[in-house]
Amino acid sequence: MAKKTVASLQTSSKRLTKAIKMVKSPKTGAYMFVESIMSPEFADDFFNKK
Fold this sequence. Notes:
By secondary structure, this protein is mainly beta. Helix content is 12%, strand content 38%. InterPro entries: DUF4295. This is DUF4295 domain-containing protein.
């Protein structure tokens, strides 16, 4: 689980966070990475949902 604020994502009016999490594929069993850019308030919801 990683949460990082990227300087290029910050604008004058909004602060955005790029969240990356590892998810296990149901078909192959291999792990893959899911990335999303969102407001920091929604980061916990992103990590908690499966």
